[in-house]
Specification:
The protein is mostly beta strands. The chain is built from 2 helices and 9 strands. The protein starts with a strand and ends with a strand.
């Protein structure tokens, strides 16, 4: 992932990558219903002996954050991207069977979250994996690779301050 500091391109540290899915590094809920950071680009690395000299995407040969093995020939882990688009819509409605005196402290809504995180520098061919493995890997440079979730959100304003929120979501 690259950034621009005015005069030159440089590789961004992993903590500056955009992520979506669940709770982000900044505490925001983007794409409720997804696990934290899973709705975006991933790192890929060949397992020993799987294919010759396969580097991890981004040029690093170090460990993978949030590594998850999903194949016997390569492993992948959450990475994030250098571009993000996100939108959310909510339809708020009164809760049935709740006394009017409590309605001001409670809120229910149906929501739709839509977003995409992508890596504008991603190139599958540079991963060094076998072609059969490359066919299984999504194009993380495609901004139209959109993820979405729908669900029900319930919020309650606590008497001591703050808001407690519970949601049920389906990606």
């Amino acid at each position: 992932h690259h950034g621009d500091d005015g005069d030159s391109d440089h590789i961004l540290p992993y903590w500056e990558y955009y992520t979506a899915g669940g709770q982000t590094k900044t505490g925001e809920l983007l794409l409720r219903g997804f696990q934290d950071g899973t709705a975006g680009p991933r790192m890929y690395s060949a397992l020993n002996g799987a294919s010759p000299g396969a580097p991890i995407a981004g040029g690093s040969s170090g460990g993978i954050l949030g590594a998850e093995t999903n194949n016997t020939r390569y492993k992948s882990g959450r990475m994030g991207g250098n571009a993000l688009a996100y939108a959310s819509a909510e339809l708020v409605f009164p809760l049935p069977f709740i006394k009017d005196s409590f309605q001001s402290n409670m809120r229910a809504s149906l929501f739709l979250d839509v977003g995409s995180v992508w890596n504008t520098e991603f190139d599958k061919q540079s991963l060094g994996l076998q072609q059969s493995d490359l066919d299984d890997i999504p194009d993380d440079s495609d901004p139209w690779r959109v993820r979405a979730s729908v669900g029900l959100n319930l919020s309650y304003a606590l008497p001591i301050g703050g808001v407690m929120t519970v949601y049920i979501a389906k990606p």
